[in-house]
Amino acid sequence: MFSRSAWARILPFLVYILFIIAVDVLTRLGVDAQALRWMYALKIGAVLATLAWFWRDYTELHAWRAGALATAIAAATGVVVLVLWVSLNADWMVIGAPDGFNPTAGGRIDWLMVAVRIAGAALVVPVMEELFWRSFLMRWIDSDHFDSLDPAQISVKSFVIGVVLFGFEHNLWLAGIVAGAAYSLLYMKQRSLWSSILAHAVTNGLLGLWIVRTGNWTYW
C-alpha cells in the first residue's frame, strides 16, 4: 500500500506512538508512572535508530535549503508558538488530565533525565513529527506520489486535515492546531522541511526550559 518513502516517514512516528501506548497500558496495569520515566529514553533511542536506518530516504534533509532570513523567520515562529502553547490552556482547550513527565525524585531534579527529555523533544521529535505530518501526510492526502509534490502545491483540504489531526495528537488540542498551522505554513511557503523542523525544535527546546524553570511538569 505504501512505498518505501512513505514507510520511512511513517515508521519512526509509529514507533513513538507504540511507546506511548505501552506506557499507558503499563500504567493502567498498576505500574508506578514514576518507575516508567526511563521509558522516554528508550522511546527516543528507538525513534532515533529508525530515523538513522531510513536516513538515505530523507533526501529533503540532506542539505540545508533555508537562507538567513528564512532561518530567522522559522526561529521566530518557534518562539511565537511557544508563547501561544503555554497560553492556550483553558479547560475547554485541554483533552484529559495528563500526568506529564516529572523528573524529580526525593524532592530533587534528576538533571540527566531533564537533559535526555529536552534533547529528545528538541532534536529528535521535531524531525520525526515533521517527516510524518508535513513531509508525508499533508502531501499524501493530495497525491499517492507525495514525494514528488512541491510543498507549495499542498491543497487547503490537506492543510486543514493535517493541522487538525496534528492538534488532536496533543492534550492541548487548540495549541496543537495553532502550532500545526504555523509549522505547515512555514513548510509550504519556504518549501523546506528544515524550516518547520527548526521552528518545532525552538518551540520544544524553549518549552522544556520553561517547564523546568516553572515546575509545570504536566506540559511534558
UniProtKB/TrEMBL annotation:
<feature type="transmembrane region" description="Helical">
    <location>
        <begin position="67"/>
        <end position="88"/>
    </location>
</feature>
<protein>
    <submittedName>
        <fullName>CAAX prenyl protease-related protein</fullName>
    </submittedName>
</protein>
<feature type="domain" description="CAAX prenyl protease 2/Lysostaphin resistance protein A-like">
    <location>
        <begin position="114"/>
        <end position="205"/>
    </location>
</feature>
<dbReference type="Pfam" id="PF02517">
    <property type="entry name" value="Rce1-like"/>
</dbReference>
<dbReference type="InterPro" id="IPR003675">
    <property type="entry name" value="Rce1/LyrA-like_dom"/>
</dbReference>
<feature type="transmembrane region" description="Helical">
    <location>
        <begin position="38"/>
        <end position="55"/>
    </location>
</feature>
<keyword id="KW-0378">Hydrolase</keyword>
<dbReference type="GO" id="GO:0006508">
    <property type="term" value="P:proteolysis"/>
</dbReference>
<feature type="transmembrane region" description="Helical">
    <location>
        <begin position="6"/>
        <end position="26"/>
    </location>
</feature>
<feature type="transmembrane region" description="Helical">
    <location>
        <begin position="159"/>
        <end position="186"/>
    </location>
</feature>
<dbReference type="GO" id="GO:0008233">
    <property type="term" value="F:peptidase activity"/>
</dbReference>
<keyword id="KW-0645">Protease</keyword>
<dbReference type="InterPro" id="IPR014346">
    <property type="entry name" value="Prenyl_protease-related"/>
</dbReference>
<keyword id="KW-1133">Transmembrane helix</keyword>
<feature type="transmembrane region" description="Helical">
    <location>
        <begin position="193"/>
        <end position="212"/>
    </location>
</feature>
<keyword id="KW-0472">Membrane</keyword>
<feature type="transmembrane region" description="Helical">
    <location>
        <begin position="109"/>
        <end position="128"/>
    </location>
</feature>
<keyword id="KW-0812">Transmembrane</keyword>
